[in-house]
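Structure (tokenized):
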């Protein structure tokens, strides 16, 4: 017994191709945005703008990590990886979270240097505002598009990368505020705003780490009660228990115990178990693999199911 959703079917292939396309487009945009900020940040002497440029450059690096991760995750199951390579996408998202932490450190350390009076105040002019507003608009569009596609495809890497780019939006907003305050005669606003933005980036990184941890620690992905309701709707099923789910949001692995009349033949019970596996696959599109363990619905099984229900309350 065992239901497995094919990882080489058209839907899976299109999903990988779509994710890669998004990452390539965003990589090109991030490099363009980063160069604009870095070049003018160096010319104007703005530490906050330079830090923002480096952060955008890390956005591009995270896209490369995502592309490598997706290339590995798309490989089919083999002898050494019988469950496939899907977790490489999660590893890539965790790597992006690590890059977020490093970006926050880079921004924060630059701000501390400026607060200590070891750097000249930035020069603020119309070009500075033009560069920041233009790159801000690009980053907002990137974040919205990538997060929307990531949720639709159930892609951890796109959602994590959208959070990374979203943190760049926060940085850009902070830089714009600091430029306004510097223009008004408050040069210390540049490093102070940069420190606040660094804290916001740390918060974003924590959210990405939590999402990756849910997959890597095999947290439950689907409600056992919801799944049992589907299972009990299959003809011949008298009970179910010990439902376990794990995996990523896009590829969930399921195993459960299904109880049938103890007088049924082995062949009949096997058919019911296969019906259960197909029903779960149809009801939950994110399910990649199901294994149903068949049990006779005798008094021992009745008591075991009741005890499990009480323990879960």
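Design, position by position:
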């Amino acid at each position: 017994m065992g239901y497995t959703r094919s990882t080489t079917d058209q839907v899976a292939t299109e999903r990988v191709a779509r994710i890669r396309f998004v990452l390539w487009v965003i990589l090109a945009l991030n490099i363009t945005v980063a160069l604009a900020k870095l070049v003018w940040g160096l010319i104007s002497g703005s530490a906050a703008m330079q830090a923002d440029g480096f952060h955008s450059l890390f956005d591009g690096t995270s896209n490369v990590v995502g592309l490598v991760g997706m290339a590995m995750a798309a490989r089919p199951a083999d002898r050494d990886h019988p469950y496939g390579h899907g977790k490489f996408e999660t590893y890539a998202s965790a790597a992006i979270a690590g890059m977020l932490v490093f970006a926050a450190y880079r921004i924060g350390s630059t701000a501390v240097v400026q607060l200590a009076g070891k750097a000249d105040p930035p020069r603020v002019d119309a070009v500075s505002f033009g560069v920041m507003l233009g790159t801000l608009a690009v980053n907002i569009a990137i974040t919205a598009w990538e997060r929307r596609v990531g949720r639709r495809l159930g892609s951890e890497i796109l959602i994590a990368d959208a959070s990374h780019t979203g943190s760049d939006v926060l940085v850009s907003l902070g830089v714009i505020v600091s430029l306004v305050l510097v223009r008004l005669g408050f040069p210390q606003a540049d490093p102070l705003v940069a420190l606040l933005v660094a804290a916001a980036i740390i918060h974003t990184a924590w959210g990405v780490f939590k999402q990756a941890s849910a997959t890597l620690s095999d947290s439950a992905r689907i409600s056992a009660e919801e799944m049992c309701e589907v299972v009990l709707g299959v003809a011949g099923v008298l009970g179910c228990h010990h439902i376990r789910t794990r995996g990523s949001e896009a590829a969930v692995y399921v195993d459960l115990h299904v109880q049938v009349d103890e007088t049924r033949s082995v062949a009949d019970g096997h058919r019911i178990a296969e019906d259960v596996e197909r029903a779960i696959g149809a009801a939950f599109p994110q399910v990649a693999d199901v294994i149903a363990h068949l049990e006779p619905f005798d008094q021992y099984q009745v008591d075991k199911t009741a005890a499990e229900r009480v323990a879960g309350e």
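Reviewer-requested clarification: Residues 174 and 193 are 6 Å apart (CA to CA). The longest strand covers residues 287-296.
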